[in-house]
Amino acid sequence: MAKKIKTNQDSDKIKDLEQNKVYDDGTLLTTNHGLKINDNQNSLKTGERGGTLIEDFILREKIHHFDHERIPERIVHARGSAAHGIFELYESIGQYTKAKLFNEVGVKVPVFVRFSTVAGSRGSTDLARDVRGFAVKFYTSEGNYDLVGNNMPVFFIQDAIKFPDLIHAVKPEPHNEIPQAASAHDTFWDFISLMPESMHMIMWVMSDRALPRSLRMMEGFGVHTFRLINKQGESHFVKFHWKPLLGIHSVAWDEAQKISGKNADFHRQDLWEAIESGAFPEWELGVQIIPEADEHNYEFDLLDSTKLIPEEIVPVRRIGKMTLNRNPDNFFAETEQVAFNPGHLIPGIDITNDPLLQGRLFSYTDTQLSRLGTHNFQELPINRPIAPVHNNQRDGHMRHTINTGRVNYEPNALGGGCPFQAKASEGGFTSFPERIESNKLRGRSKSFFDHFSQAKLFFNSQSDAEKSHLTNALCFELGKVETVAIRERMIKMLTYIDKGLAAAVAVYLGLKIPKEIIPFNGSLPADGNPNDYNPIITESSLKSSAALSMENTIMDSIITRKVAFLVADGVNEESVKAVKDKLETEGAVVELVAPKLGFIISKNNVEFEIHKSLLTTASVLYDAVYVPAGINSVATLASEPDAIHFLNEAFKHCKAIAVDVDALQVLEQTYFYIKLPKQFTDKDAATKGFIVNNDSNALATEFAKAIAKHRFWDREKLQKVPA
Ligand code: HDE
Asked: Of all atoms in ligand 1, which is nearest to the CA of residue 150?
């Protein structure tokens, strides 16, 4: 039966239906004015073979509605996936903020979270190398609070005035709309190579952080420094963090590109399925709090969004947990129509003078207006606050609220003065009375001129594998750039970060390795080219920060990890069951993959339903692979090229591979086994993610430990695999 539609006047309508004794169980098709439709197959014609009549208002309404089903997609962050959930505070930070959200321990505040990529269109792939949006709407009793962040803690530019340029440069090139959802093209790198302030962010975007394994396995950051204001009116600076309880994990670039072809909805589906299965994604909310008096005590400017505050300098305090526990009912009505705004604040949280944040405050409402067509988008169910709304704003396109009475102005006496302004003690919002004494100018503080120290800090904090991925990413991206001068400018920029990195990329691009750092000799913005001012080349006093490397993340769980069992008729059922039971008990998702769909019959005539065939799936859609025993099954798989490719690719992408000793015949056909047979029999094979055993229980235990490690990146050095 169709779900009941929720409208403002729901209860009145139901009453009317009851009074008029209209029976409605939601099963009959109607027009939008409630007329029951008798024939939804044929339009009204002048005879069975005659022309269609313009009088057919049912046909006209249906086609008209359809013609207008699309609205403009978001100019950035067009491709997104979202979910409902709750936020629960563990620990009050009432001494810093009066926001009830951060005072009321144990209260469950509803949230709606939308994750997104930035550059691609609505229909683009989830696995693009890109920043991910991480936008959270808290429906608090004091009004909606939106924390509209990203999965990286810094941004490309320091001032909002450069945002349209940045986005124009990264989007498909305007003459031919190529490439879609990719930064690997001339216009992006042309802009970046002229924009030294973007170098720190470039390190993040070229790192594996831009290729999350799952939206559930990435961090979130508020990026800007915000303010917390307490009851006494005192201000503290704050940075917000979301820490995923499953850890931070990524995929390999080769894998990301293949996933884009095999399942462009990989992240969307992963989020949806995890929530449907009850494996609710969770993040802890962390805060870095800084007293107002310490504003100038750092090597960087707190108002500069190209800088992070290293966790070693100001620790992250975890104060609550967000759990996503419900998928949207309707993608368009919720995920597409949700409207976030960094200016949706509540008492106790305020903005700072970060020039990037300041520009955002104007942009979001403006863009909602062009996207959703009316200021009344605030009344859409997904945007409506749970806090009551009372004001004198009226009318406009698509108004839902039926305001009653004659008073729509303030002050008024006819309406008894209502609605009144709220005093601060009644929860009225007051801005932090920051003292301002300055000249009006276009300019930038010198404290914003260091563009490289944190780019270096990030690079130096990466593991060897992460550094190698980052280097390869730059080779790939700049390798796609056709203009040699852009590549050369980028190599020059990289020398300010790390000479080894610059040299490695230069060698790949066939350019000269820079012998020494060429000093900047540009001029300050006031003298002309605003992109060419003298950046300060300096070092961070911190040499590395453990929080910046994914190698130090949580690796103790296999919850929701997807494991493929390669099987065929004749498989040994015990070899399947023991391992499957163990992995599923620990929360992994096991899928049986066979040469064809339907069922297979095991050695002892047990039927197993097949989830995917080698044609409909691929190794890149799994975290690990296992080949169980069974003479006939093993013989079939050993002569099946797709099964061998599956294993070769799993090896290449450094995933855990488990094989029953009696299934080694399949492994013997793979490229890596031929090259490295000893690796699988070594005492420490399991520590490299190779598990070969004929005791299924022992194999399962070792396998689970290996899957929790996520990837064995050292394997990249061991053997290159043509897969
Ligand atoms: Fe956004 N950004 N942004 N942004 N942003 C939008 O608003 C903008 C920035 C972020 O899931 C737009 O409703 C400007 C930083 C997310 O619906 C638009 C500047 C951060 C989302 C806009 C920035 C973000 C957006 C497009 C530079 C991380 C998706 C559609 C000053 C802290 C929200 C929309 C969703 C969306 C403008 C920079 C995060 C055009 C002008 C920095 C997660 O208004």
From this structure: 28
Q: Could you tell me the residue ranges of all domains in the chain?
A: 57-376, 555-717
- Cα 268 to averaged position of ligand 1 atoms, centre (Å): 20
Burial pattern 20-44, b for ≥16 Cβ within 10 A else e, equals eeeeeeeeeeeeeeeeeeeeeeeee
| Average pLDDT, 10 consecutive residues per value, the chain (723 residues) | 48 64 83 95 96 96 95 97 98 98 97 98 98 98 98 98 97 98 98 95 98 98 98 97 98 98 98 98 98 96 98 98 98 98 98 96 94 96 97 95 95 96 94 93 92 97 98 98 96 94 96 74 42 68 96 96 98 97 98 98 97 98 98 98 98 97 97 91 92 96 98 91 86
Pocket test for ligand 1, best of 156, 170, 307, 360 (most atoms within 8 A of CB): 360
Contacts of 135 (CB under 8 A, 6+ apart): 77, 113, 114, 115, 116, 146, 147, 148, 149, 340
The reply to whether 65 belongs to the active site is no
Q: Are the beta carbons of 147 and 118 closer than 8 angstroms?
A: no
DSSP string, 165-226: HHHHHHSSBTTTTBSTT---SHHHHHHHHT-GGGHHHHHHHHSGGGSBS-GGG--EE--S-E
Residue 580 near residue 565, CB atoms below 8 Å: yes
Query: Among 144, 150, 572, 693, which one carries the catalytic annotation?
Result: 150
Q: Report CA(364)–ligand 1 centroid distance (Å).
A: 7
Contact 572/603 with Cβ under 8 angstroms?
yes
| Known catalytic membership, residue 408 | no
CATH number for the region 57-376 comes to: 2.40.180.10
> Quick check: bond before 328 cis, omega within 30?
no
Q: Whose CA is nearest to atom 6 of ligand 1?
A: 76
- Which residues have C-beta within 8 Å of that of residue 473, sequence separation ≥ 6? 129, 206, 207, 210, 253
Whether 469 is in the pocket of ligand 1, judged by its Cβ within 6 Å, is no
CATH of domain 555-717: 3.40.50.880
Strand order across the beta sheet in which 562-566 lies: 612-613, 589-594, 562-566, 624-627, 656-660, 690-693
What distance in angstroms lies between residue 72's CA and the mean position of ligand 1's atoms?
15
The residue to mutate among 73, 74, 146, 356, having the most atoms of ligand 1 within 8 angstroms of its beta carbon, is: 74
**Distances in Å between the alpha carbon of 689 and those of 553, 564, 622, 660, 702?**
18, 15, 15, 14, 9
